[in-house]
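Follow-up to my post from last week.
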Amino acid sequence: MSVRLLVLVPVAAAISLALSAVVDAVALPLFLDTTGTILATALAGPGVGIATGVVTSAVNTLRNPTFWPFVVVQIIVALYAWAAARAGLFRSFRTAIPAGLGLGVIASVTSTPISYLVFGCTTTGGIALTTALGRALGLSPLGACFFGSFVSDFGDKAVTFALVTSVLHALPRRTAARFPWALRAIGAA
Amino acid sequence: MTRLHPFTLLALAAALVALAWLLPAPGGGLATVAAALGLAGSRGLRRGLWPALATAAPFWLFLFILHDVPTTVALGLRITTMVASVVWLVAVLAPARLVEAMVAAGWRAGTAYLFAATLSAVPVLKARAQRIVEAQRCRGLSPRGGLGPRVRALRALALPLILSALHEVDERALALESRGLVPGARRTPLAPPPDRGAERAVRWALVALCVAALVWRLA
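User reply:
Got it. Predicted complex:
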């Protein structure tokens, strides 16, 4: 890994963690905690993306210990973002947002067993309350847990993909060309 | 405790969490939570015990809403062990000592850099995000109203933050190269934490304990 790509990992991980301040300002029910992972993957490929996801989870764990078991989700997000970048799905919102919705489904399927077995679906207040709503609607415990994860992940990943698409298109071409995957991700190479 | 080798501190916290899940509830959970809260409490009420209890409390509430009492107790004790172990670890483990220990143990300097650089970059970017929020508000951006205005405000706030961070990548890379951090280069730690034989034995004993618990539960 070159020094530039090595530097990209902590910068992207810090972006994921610092975006919480922006989310607080606009008061939207979003996490955006995979933004750095998706961005690093779209810029530099799956190795850098996976490293960013692992570092993000590790550093986030120091703030909230419940994040570490979800490192698997970060790795799957990186692999999915790599496939999206290879297919040039970051070329416009019309392709990126459906791809983000697809990731929302995959992320909630992946996170449900972890949330159910390790935390009893109490990972965050929002997930716990939507899980309780699912139970009230007559869903099974695992089904209600999936419902809670799905509600929180579905929109979040679509917004994250749209945000990363905005960033990739706003980057000057000369800067983007320094990263191995950036131009391909936006369908310009 | 802070004098212990960073790997010993990590092994203690990891073993407590592993044992909380491996040992049968509620006895196993009670034992591990007592040990973890004891460790957290050793750092004082404000730095250790209170943050651990305050972080674990919402989980107990949500578990109580979603599950029956035996499940709430079993999962709650495990989660509290995890929370208290990490709170204690954060209080006793200095990141700089961990980096020195990793380099001394033969880890690549780049790997050690990843964690140290992220830890130092997060507060810098959070402060910058706050400045961007204030600057955009001065320009008339309103992060309130319906969903559409809020999403547009999100883009107006997040984009400058992310782009400014990406523009720093080249500067940071140049700074690292000028300090000799190139792929494959070996670093010499300035003050590696002493790793005594007794501590290495304790770490292996903790690994053996966790493996024994796993085998016992699977048998």
